Amino acid sequence: MNDVIYTEPFSDRRRDQINLVTVGGSISFDLKGNTCFHFPTAEARNEYLSLKSKEKGRDAE
Known about the structure:
Elements: E1 6-9, H1 14-22, E2 26-29, E3 35-39, H2 42-60
Antiparallel strand pairs: 1-3, 2-3
Helix pairs in contact: 1-2
């Protein structure tokens, strides 16, 4: 059985890393050895992306 892996590119931004931990994610490595954000579920990844988009909205104000 193949498990689905939920990742996003690594970010040096402190706020992105705080959001990552908030949703239960961690910093990991992809199959090519690149640093990335790893999420336990699709829901956690979606929540992270939602938090990140809210931050972009605040930056635009």
